[in-house]
């Protein structure tokens, strides 16, 4: 349960010599009644952990694909509470860790303490809150700590060495290394310095480092996992799921398995 199941899932993959693959999906895109089968599909395709987005009206870091998915979910009436209730309903039959990705506003509205309690009751193992600054994250992190839920921190390309050291120290489960300056979405090419950047982050921490933002092809997965322990893929997975393209989802996820064998 909680952060331990994240650690275990990652270790199992790395011990085999594979890399981790974390697909992001928007909760309630396609209807909340689809969530269970979407998670099962991704787990069966070989995902290590699921990053589950909570729809929010003002998603500042989301690119067009994720924004559109969020809109579809909001239109169908999805809320944080409904997502947690739904996760609780099929908690026992899941065997893949779940990380919620939510902006800070819904957490404050819900109440950080109640949020952490309900996350535990729903079998949520970790949480990512991209818009909470390091200096102001105590309110959330203390509540999560009591329930042994991992608080996953993001490092950006512009994080200073000083901040990077703090992020590396505080992150739990894994460190989310953002690959581009900008918003989420499909990219064709990463900056020339990205390899050095990821290598530098790897040198700062013993915790697993996963790269995310703009990863959309097996080639990207292979390119980035040469420098880190895994990838996070959002927009491309959201698109493929929306199209019902299970075959390409499978190919993309499996590309992390054969990355370095
Ligand atoms: O969509 P991309 O480019 O593959 O990026 C991952 C991403 O979608 C997911 O992790 C995410 C969705 N919204 C976010 C907001 C901030 C940080 C991360 C995210």
Automatic annotation (TrEMBL):
Active-site residue numbers: 51, 62
Cited SUPFAM superfamilies: Ribulose-phoshate binding barrel (SSF51366)
Reaction(s) catalysed by this chain's protein: (1S,2R)-1-C-(indol-3-yl)glycerol 3-phosphate + L-serine = D-glyceraldehyde 3-phosphate + L-tryptophan + H2O
GO CC, alphabetical: cytosol
GO molecular function annotation: tryptophan synthase activity
Assigned keywords, A-Z: Amino-acid biosynthesis, Aromatic amino acid biosynthesis, Lyase, Tryptophan biosynthesis
Pfam families in UniProt: Trp_syntA (PF00290)
Pathway as given in its UniProt record: Amino-acid biosynthesis; L-tryptophan biosynthesis; L-tryptophan from chorismate: step 5/5
Name of the protein in question: Tryptophan synthase alpha chain
């Amino acid at each position: 349960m909680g952060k331990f199941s994240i650690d275990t899932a990652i270790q199992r993959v790395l011990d085999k010599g594979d890399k981790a693959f974390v697909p992001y999906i928007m909760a309630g895109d396609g209807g909340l009644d689809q969530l269970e089968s979407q998670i099962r599909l991704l787990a069966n395709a070989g995902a290590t952990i699921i990053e589950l987005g909570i729809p929010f009206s003002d998603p500042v870091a989301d690119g067009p694909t994720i924004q559109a998915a969020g809109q579809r979910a909001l239109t169908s009436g999805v809320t944080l509470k409904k997502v947690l209730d739904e996760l609780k309903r099929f908690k026992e039959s899941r065997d893949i860790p779940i990380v919620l990705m939510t902006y800070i506003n819904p957490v404050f509205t819900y109440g950080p303490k109640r949020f952490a309690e309900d996350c535990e009751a729903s079998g949520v193992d970790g949480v990512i809150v991209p818009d909470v600054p390091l200096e102001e994250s105590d309110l959330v992190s203390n509540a999560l700590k009591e329930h042994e839920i991992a608080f996953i921190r993001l490092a950006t390309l512009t994080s200073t060495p000083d901040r990077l050291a703090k992020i590396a120290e505080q992150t739990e489960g894994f460190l989310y290394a953002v690959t581009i300056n900008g918003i989420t979405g499909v990219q064709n090419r990463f900056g020339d310095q990205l390899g050095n950047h990821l290598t530098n982050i790897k040198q700062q921490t013993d915790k697993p480092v996963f790269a995310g933002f703009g990863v959309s092809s097996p080639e990207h997965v292979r390119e980035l996992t040469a420098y880190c322990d895994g990838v996070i893929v959002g927009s491309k997975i959201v698109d493929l799921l929306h199209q019902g393209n299970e075959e390409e989802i499978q190919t993309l996820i499996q590309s992390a398995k054969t990355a370095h064998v």
